[in-house]
Amino acid sequence: MRDAVTNLIRNYDVSGRYLDRNGIDTLKAYFETGTARVAAAAAINSNAAAIVKQAGLRLFEELPELIRPGGNAYTTRRYAACLRDMDYYLRYASYALVAGDTNVLDERVLQGLRETYNSLGVPIGPTVRGIQIMKEIVKEQVAAAGIVNTAFVEQPFDHLTREFSEQDV
Ligand SMILES: CCC1=C(C)/C(=C/C2=NC(=C\c3[nH]c(/C=C4\NC(=O)[C@H](C)[C@H]4CC)c(C)c3CCC(=O)O)/C(CCC(=O)O)=C2C)NC1=O
After folding, report:
1. Is the CB of 73 inside a 6 Å radius of any atom of ligand 1?
2. Both 69 and 139 in a single domain?
3. pTM for the whole thing?
4. Overall number of domains in the chain
5. Does one domain contain both 133 and 94?
6. For the chain, how are helix, strand and coil distributed in percent, rounded to 5?
């Protein structure tokens, strides 16, 4: 698992270089957004259950067939599994926000997930939609916490959906 700093150092160490202008600029950008990253993680932490619940409601309102007989989230057990998955995405996204790096998502979330979903018939498109809905809700929460520029919040959610979608053969 890597964060923005260890990732940068690793890249320079591989070629035995001191940190040059690019490296320093990358570090500066990371530290300058540090307080906002931590505040975003705090906002997610104190609203996590509500964010997941709200995102689930919006998703099932948009795609009601998911919770009808024959839908993948039909039955209480699968409905709960779906919200639990959303909670995983949210929690790991909060880690990635603090780390300033999406590596934690690759290692802990995305690895083998597509295969699992395919074998269980969990539809990827609606899952991606659910992740995007969570992104919107989190951006609202982070803005409500007084953070002006919320663009960085999009990164982990977009990484999850991009990776999920790209591996689609
Ligand atoms: C931390 C990393 C991690 C992830 C991400 C993870 C996901 C994950 N989701 C699963 C199931 C599932 N995932 C869903 C999710 C959904 N169904 C839908 O229709 C919606 C679109 C969607 C919710 C947005 C459902 C319904 C199941 C149960 C499927 C079944 O058992 O038939 C399973 C199969 C085993 C189980 O049920 O626990 C895994 C491994 N597990 C992990 O350890």
Report:
1. yes
2. yes
3. 0.95
4. 2
5. yes
6. 80, 0, 20
